[in-house]
Design a protein that fits this description.
Helix content of chain B: 25-40%
Strand order of the largest sheet of chain A: 1-8-17-18-16-19-20-21-22
CATH architecture of chain B: Alpha-Beta Barrel
Structural class of chain B: alpha/beta
CATH topology of the largest domain in chain A: Rossmann fold
Largest sheet of chain A: 9 strands, mixed
Order of helices and strands of chain B: EEEHEHHEHEHEHEEEHEHEHHHHH
Radius of gyration of chain B: 22 Å
Number of strands of chain B: 12
Radius of gyration of chain A: 32 Å
Number of domains of chain B: 1
Largest sheet of chain B: 8 strands, parallel
Number of helices of chain A: 44
CATH superfamily of chain B: Aldolase class I
Oligomer: heterodimer
CATH topology of chain B: TIM Barrel
Distance between the termini of chain B: 51 Å
CATH architecture of the largest domain in chain A: 3-Layer(aba) Sandwich
Helix content of chain A: 25-40%
Number of helices of chain B: 13
Structural class of chain A: alpha/beta
Distance between the termini of chain A: 88 Å
Largest interface: A-B, 67 and 38 residues
CATH class of the largest domain in chain A: Alpha Beta
Chain lengths: ~1200, ~325
């Protein structure tokens, strides 16, 4: 058999086997499992065949529940079928998994384990999800490394076919799913040899077949259900042996030997840790190290967790075992131990009770938790657990890896403890930007080293939580021995550190992880002799103290000289190879060039040649810096947050921003997931190279720039100029145009310079053109650094100016609406995001009374991902109250809020009546019948409620206390249900439909990016025909669902379809109408996204073309108009005025299909053109109908 | 009927040659054109801009949930390579000559890829010089010299026939054509259609407009074909607005060797070509001419004299004879 090595990550390793061994693959995106589905889809799109010569069918469902249902059907119909998922996705599959297992259907589900959403969502890895699936009847087989993922995927496939018990094949999300490693490929002939055709035939013969029909899925009663449930026992009893036999066969074929429970360590170990997943590797590495020093320690790796073979588990322990610690990577609150611990405890106890124990006395047994949400699990922590085991009274129910200063569960550990592996491997660390190609270059470096040397290689990639200007840190290890270190490179351990972006120097402690005598490579525009002075003093000191070799390269210059734009990745990669000398430089350069050729294809010759020239230039561009003996820099790293920040922000938020969140003790973290609003204002990211500068002379005060700003960084205020006495000299303000403001008052447009992302959309929208200077507008971009200090002061002053009285504004006018304060600001959304302007608008108009139910997705990530969040408060302390429940339940979540608010308001009304005499007739009437349809009405009601509460204080009746608790519900609440198209069109559609039908006063905002944006751009039912997205690499063949039409079919729902940059006033109007409508409203908002492949500088133009081509007709359907005898539907955009071709030609998501599938692209285009015209015509006809009768308005008019 | 014609040194069965359009992107469509009677095929243009591709957008993003967007093809085909493949594929599928089309304007050496087009099988090259002379510093002579230099550069790397597709915007077009011939051109195609920008008064944005030609758009080209026929030695092609057999015959009578078809085929499909062909055969059968060769240029300028409709005298007469009819005004 071949022994080919490949460099892949865990997801790809699993997907390769899954694609080879299955016929039907049902998929749905969820992090971190999505890449498995993406690989499978891409391979099938390329026509890649499975083991039996057919191309697997890939089908995307509307949810994981749907995927599981489809798999159930496929299995019942005799196909080999699989799916991939994680976390909440697995939870949605549970009902079907009971069915699949109950019917003994062979299948393997591949799971990249991930935390479950509890006090917060987390996309990172632990075993909470698979532990929730214990009752389903699926077997559970774990892989601890990338190699094992490929191996176990196949062993699971073979075992399920033989034993008929379906299997969850699991591995740790991110840690293993995204670890890139050099592994031995499982050859196709191995796969063939492992799978028994007779068992596949048997599976097919059990399928539903009208030629010899059976009935399955009956409803059973008390008489037989129980017995029937027990009828499967023999399959479960046999399953461990089936799996072990498959492992044996696999070992014969590949030489890699596995067992249900694997023991590593001293044959006479006294202290043993039992665990499963990637942590096993770290535990083994640590045990080997400590045993060399004379300890007697061991590790039992659990591989087959279900069915749990208790005897095999105990048998894996040496007879000398005296103390056992069982580690669970999950938490079961309220239990007296986590699942694996309790399984082991039961196994030990049962054996003792049966008098069969191999141990002289019952070993001491403790259990604890580690590694939740990918928390680091290091050799120091493993040693900490062993140290605990050595104590007389070791702690059970412990935690390791955190500081629990509240219930004191945490164990101490020595952070400085290292194994020999740290020095046996070359540890390299790279700081890059998400968009500069650092990660892909590093993946490629691993591949080169894997292929050109005998070295083992490993790569972990850590991303921060922002979508714009995100930082990536790549952790690479290379060494002669297999690398077991399943943890990140620690402080003082990196022999090589590269900083690909100068701006990180002032932001991050780049060199904390540098090892003494290591190498530091900096991409800098400064010359070698000048670069030293650009470093902060702490960094200089570290270079001196750690005796680092310091090199500098101007990669951006080299890239520019070779017309490579911002792509510095191959240049930095060459510098890395030149400095670490893992292989001869000439060979490295050849390999890098080969990789360039591979990635651009042998066809992109010009790009390839430009890259080659850059590669050749990079060695020459690499220069060593002479390090002075002392650090003289005046530069200090700026404080993370301003000194005047609130205490919580300084104590907690700032620590997370600074990358020290791991050190925060339990006591500082909210117990119930409640965090303060508006923290994003304290995180100054300084992302923009250029910021807009206001030309107060040209400006006409139209309000369009604050309206479109995705980050809420450009604001306008109108104020009495007398207040500007203390203004900084550069603060600009001019008399405001228009009679709607007090005479002599001024207006200012001010930019938050450190929060702006530099998208320049404000400049794009500015309608004013300077007649003197071509290209100049009332806003113009200028470099940020020279403006930073001045504009920071101006911004600070601007914030001190009072907000304009909202009750005096006509909010239906753009100019006046944009005077209001956004209560959604500085989010981490992508620069130029098409979604956030809508949220910001809602926050300006209704923020002080909004309650937001936010579906999981981009808006929940930029809206609620730590460290800082954008939903803010006004100066009175009011603002949107926000929560994210799940992806699938958001409409229901919001409905629940509405029902609760109404219920408490009605209760308050009832209490008002019961306290009528104490409160007084006039007050009760005013409170009950308050008109809150205007800003002034709401303000008056707030005053009444405040008076009421004052009044209640003097009342002794218990009802007064009850009313105090609900009195605020008498103030209007605006409930907003927010989510993306993945939620509204797919996974949450059932709930959305129900809420539309329920008629309650909620406002639904669908941010339609026409693709699953957050998970990386997978197709949804909102994706237009012909668009290329993940899961439809060949272009989506079906049309986009018309959600507006569906919503309108309820007739009592307010419906609007908007695109803010195509017709801003229509958007403004729609938001106000929707909110004022006393029933259900839905706004479907067009939101350009980076997933479309275009630069978001095109955002406004893309919206405009979408509307003008008829792709996105603008409309409003207001049921209130019926009462006035009017047609409720108003079509706000004109008939398509440009060809659909002109719309699609402008967007990469469509036009790339012309390059890959030209014939299909033309077919899709034809169909879309036809649909756009037909849809518009249809809406036009509807809008022309006279209400209530079967005649058109035009006909009515004619009669008159 | 004998519709044979000679164009760029190529013997063609008839004078109907589909010009550069998306139709030649599709092999089946090209085959249908041939079946409908096309005598040669000019391919869609390979643009200079496509030879200098911008780099792919960064495929990597910072957020852990979305490390990449869009399933970019593993090997994005460079335009030149796809074009070369298409030439080879068309040559395999078609019997008729295939003329590759290069479109550009700069001095960046892009014309040199003409050699590869020929190696891939192109029987001739069309050089589409599309420039808007928007620089006030550039005079007409510099502009013309620039065109001639580009042609000379291409002539330096290929030996196959070259035809140059021109716009009508030359002060001395006849002289320019003669200069092109001297620089190595074997033909000219008259005239190129520019995409005109338009202004959207709703959005206050400029919008590009592509409008297909209409019958009647032929007259400008017809005049110049008539003027050039017999005065220059190179082949002449008429392009723009030829929608019917009558349109085509008029161009041939004026002096064209071939007539290009584009908008009519885009509008009505390849079958339209066979209808034009049938119409021409019918016309020729009823005409005094025995062959196409005989009718070509028979109403050209040199046969019509200086007082003909081709020149200024006619213009003076025409304007003078226009009868005003104010009653039709609203």
């Amino acid at each position: 058999m071949s022994r080919r090595t490949i460099t892949v990550d865990g997801n790809e390793a699993a997907a390769r086997i899954a694609h080879l061994c299955n016929e039907v693959i049902a998929i749905y995106p969820i992090t971190p499992a999505s890449p498995m589905g993406e690989h499978a889809d891409a391979w099938s799109a390329q026509g890649k065949e499975n083991l039996w010569g057919s191309v697997p069918q890939i089908i995307e469902l509307q949810s994981e529940g749907g995927a599981a249902g489809a798999i159930h059907g496929a299995l019942q119909s005799g196909a080999l079928a699989t799916t991939f998922t994680a976390s909440q996705g697995l939870l949605l599959m549970l009902p079907n998994m009971y069915k699949i297992a109950g019917e003994l259907s062979p299948t393997v589900f591949h799971i990249a384990c991930r935390s479950l959403a509890a006090q917060a969502l987390s996309i990172f890895g632990d075993h909470s999800d698979i532990m929730a699936a214990r009752g389903t009847g699926f077997a559970m087989l774990g892989a601890n490394s990338v190699q094992q993922v490929m191996d176990m995927a196949l062993i699971a496939q073979a075992a399920t076919l033989q034993g008929r018990v379906p299997i969850l094949h699991f591995f740790d999300g991110f840690r293993t799913s995204h670890e890139v490693a050099r592994i031995e490929e499982v050859a196709e002939e191995t796969v063939r040899a492992m799978l028994d055709d007779a068992q596949i035939t048997a599976h097919r013969e059990r399928a539903l077949n009208p030629e010899h029909p059976v009935v399955r899925g009956t409803s059973q009663n008390p008489d037989v259900y129980f017995q029937a449930r027990e009828s499967v026992n023999r399959y479960y009893l046999a399953m461990p042996q089936v799996v072990q036999a498959c492992m044996e066969r696999f070992a014969e074929l590949t030489g890699r030997r596995y067992q249900l429970f694997e023991y590593h360590g001293a044959a006479d170990a006294e202290r043993v840790i039992i665990l499963m997943g990637s942590g096993v590797e770290t535990a083994i590495e640590t045990v080997e190290e400590l045993n060399l020093a004379g300890e007697r320690l061991g590790v039992v790796a659990v591989r087959l967790y279900r069915p749990f073979d208790a005897a095999a588990c105990i048998a894996a322990l040496p007879a000398t075992t005296r103390a056992i610690a069982v580690l669970d990577r999950c938490k079961e609150p309220g239990a007296d131990g986590e699942p694996l611990y309790k399984d082991v405890a039961t196994a030990l106890m049962q054996q003792f009770a049966a008098g069969q124990s191999a141990f002289g006395q019952m070993p001491r047994l403790i259990g604890g938790r580690y590694g939740l949400s990918s928390k680091e699990f290091t050799p120091g922590m493993v040693k900490g657990v062993f140290d605990e085991l050595a104590k007389e009274q070791p702690k059970s129910g412990f935690t390791i890896g955190i500081d629990d200063d509240v219930t004191h569960t945490s164990l101490d550990w020595d952070e400085r403890f290292r194994t020999g592996a740290t020095t046996e491997t070359v540890n390299a660390l790279f700081y890059g930007l998400g968009s500069d190609g650092t990660v892909s270059a590093n993946k490629n470096s691993i591949k080169i080293i894997g292929e050109c040397t005998a070295l083992q290689a490993q790569g972990y990639f850590v991303y921060d939580s922002k979508k714009s200007g995100a930082v990536t840190v790549s952790h690479l290890r290379f060494g002669p021995q297999p690398i077991r270190s399943s943890y990140l490179i620690g402080d003082g351990d990196a022999q090589f550190i590269a900083c690909h972006q100068e701006l990180f120097l002032e932001r991050y402690p780049i060199l904390d992880k540098a090892a003494a005598g290591g190498t530091f490579l900096l991409n800098s525009s400064s010359a070698p002799e000048a670069v030293w002075a650009t470093l902060p003093r702490t960094l200089q000191q570290q270079i001196i103290d750690k005796r680092l070799r310091f090199f500098v390269i101007d990669a951006y210059r080299i890239a520019a000289e070779n017309e490579l734009g911002q792509r510095i990745n191959t240049i930095m990669q060459c510098a890395f190879f030149a400095l670490v000398e893992l292989l001869p430089m000439a060979q490295a350069i050849d390999a890098i060039k080969q990789a360039v050729e591979e990635s651009y294809g042998k066809r992109g010759r010009e790009i390839i040649e430009r890259n080659f020239a850059a590669i050749d230039a990079s060695s020459a561009g690499l220069q060593q810096v002479t390090v002075p003996a002392t650090a003289q820099s005046q530069l200090e790293r700026a404080p993370t947050v301003a000194a005047q920040a609130p205490e919580f922000i300084r104590q907690v938020t700032a620590e997370i921003i600074a990358g020290r969140g791991d050190r925060l003790p339990v006591s500082l973290l909210p117990a119930d997931g409640t965090w303060p609003n508006g923290s994003s204002a304290w995180e100054k990211r300084n992302l923009a190279q250029e910021i807009p500068v206001w030309d107060e002379v040209l400006c006409i005060h139209c309000g369009k720039c604050p309206f479109v700003c995705p980050h809420g960084v450009i604001r306008s205020k109108v104020f009495d100029p007398a207040l500007t006495g203390d203004a900084p000299p550069s603060f600009k303000h001019v008399p405001v145009r228009g009679k709607e403001f007090p005479e002599g008052w001024h207006i200012s447009y001010q930019v938050a310079p450190e929060d702006c992302t530099g998208c320049a959309l404000c400049v794009d929208i500015c309608p004013v053109k300077d007649k003197e200077v071509a290209g100049r507008r009332a806003l113009n971009m200028a470099p940020q650094p020279p403006l930073r200090a001045q504009e920071r002061d101006n911004w600070a002053f601007f914030l001190t100016l009072p907000e304009y009285d909202r009750t005096a504004l006509t909010l239906s006018k753009m100019k006046e609406a944009m005077i209001t304060q956004p209560l959604f600001e500085f989010s981490g959304a992508c620069s130029g995001c098409g979604e956030t302007p809508y949220l910001k608008l809602a926050s300006q108009l209704f923020g002080d009374r909004m309650v937001v139910a936010n579906a999981t997705g981009c808006s929940s990530i930029y809206g609620g991902n730590l460290p800082t969040t954008p939903w803010a408060k006004n100066n009175e302390g009011r603002g949107p109250a926000w929560n994210n429940s799940l992806f699938e339940d958001n409409a229901e979540f919001g409905l629940g809020m509405r029902v609760a608010i109404d219920q408490q308001r009605d209760y308050a009304f009832a209490l008002l009546e019961r306290l009528h005499d104490e409160i007084g007739e006039e007050r009760v009437t005013a409170l009950r019948h308050a008109d809150q349809g205007s800003e002034a009405g709401i303000r008056d009601q707030r005053e009444r409620v405040a008076e009421l509460r004052d009044k209640l204080k003097t009342c002794e009746r218990p009802e007064a206390r009850w009313l105090e608790a609900v009195a605020e519900q008498l103030i209007k609440r605006s409930v907003w249900i927010v989510g993306g198209d993945g939620w509204a069109y797919d996974i949450g559609f059932g709930g959305l439909d129900h809420v539309l039908a329920a008629g309650r006063d909620v406002n639904i905002l669908v941010l339609d990016t026409e693709v699953y944006s957050n998970t990386g751009g997978q197709t949804s039912k909102a994706t237009p025909r012909g668009a290329v997205a993940k899961f439809s690499a060949g272009g989506k063949p079906t049309a986009k669902k018309d959600l507006a039409m569906i919503a309108m079919s309820y007739e009592n729902v307010y419906v609007a379809q908007v695109a803010y940059a195509a017709k801003d006033v229509q958007t403004l109007k729609a938001f106000q109408e929707a909110e004022s409508y006393p029933g259900t409203s839905i706004i479907i908002a067009y939101a350009p996204c980076i997933a479309w492949g275009n630069d978001l500088a095109d955002n406004h133009q893309m919206q405009d073309l979408a509307v003008r081509s008829g792709h996105w007709p603008l409309l409003r359907y207001d049921p209130r108009r019926l009462e006035q005898g009017l047609n409720p539907l108003q079509l706000d955009s004109k008939a398509p005025s440009i060809a659909y071709r002109d719309f699609v030609a402008n967007e990469v998501r469509f036009n790339m299909l012309w390059r890959t599938h030209p014939a299909e692209a033309e077919q899709f285009l034809d169909a879309s053109q036809h649909e756009a015209m037909a849809r518009y015509h249809h809406y036009e006809q509807l809008a022309a109908l006279a209400p209530g009768v079967g005649q058109s308005a035009a006909e009515e008019k004619e009669k008159e | 009927m004998d519709l044979r014609t000679r164009y760029l040194g190529l013997e063609l069965a008839n004078p109907l040659v589909p010009s550069a359009s998306p139709l030649s992107r599709d092999l089946d469509m090209a085959r249908r054109l041939e079946d409908a009677g096309a005598a040669a095929l000019v391919m869609y243009s390979l643009f200079e801009e496509e030879l200098h591709p911008t780099l792919l957008p960064p495929h990597e993003f910072g957020h852990v949930e979305a490390q990449s967007y869009l399933p970019l093809p593993a090997h994005p085909a460079a335009a030149l390579d796809s074009y070369l493949e298409q030439i080879a594929a068309l040559k395999r599928r078609l019997q008729i000559p295939v003329i590759a089309s290069l479109n550009g304007s700069s001095r960046n050496g892009w014309v040199e890829c003409g050699r590869e087009l020929v190696e891939a099988g192109a029987d001739a090259l069309e050089l589409n010089l599309y420039t808007i002379a928007a620089e006030v510093e550039t005079d007409s002579q510099q502009q013309e010299q620039h065109y001639l230099a580009l042609l000379a550069q291409l002539r330096g790397v290929v030996t196959v026939p070259i035809t140059v597709k021109l716009s009508p915007y030359f002060t001395a077009l006849a002289n320019m054509v003669a200069s092109l011939e001297a620089a190595g051109a074997n033909g000219v195609a008259l005239f190129n259609r520019f995409y005109q920008p338009d202004i959207d008064t709703g959005t206050l944005r400029l919008t590009p407009r592509l409008q297909l030609s209409h019958p009647g758009d032929t007259l400008l080209a017809m005049r110049w074909l008539g003027i050039l026929h017999g005065k220059v030695g190179l082949s002449l092609a008429a392009t723009g607005g030829i929608h019917s057999a009558e349109d085509a015959i008029k161009m041939l009578l004026a002096g064209a060797d071939v007539t290009h078809l584009c908008s009519a085929l885009l509008r009505h499909g390849p079958r339209h070509l066979s209808e034009i062909l049938r119409g021409m055969e019918q016309w020729l059968a009823e005409s005094p001419y025995e062959s196409l060769e005989m009718l070509k240029g028979s109403l050209a300028h040199r046969h019509a004299g200086t007082d003909s409709a081709y020149e200024r005298a006619s213009y003076v007469r025409m304007l003078g004879s226009y009868a005003l009819n104010p009653t039709q005004w609203e």
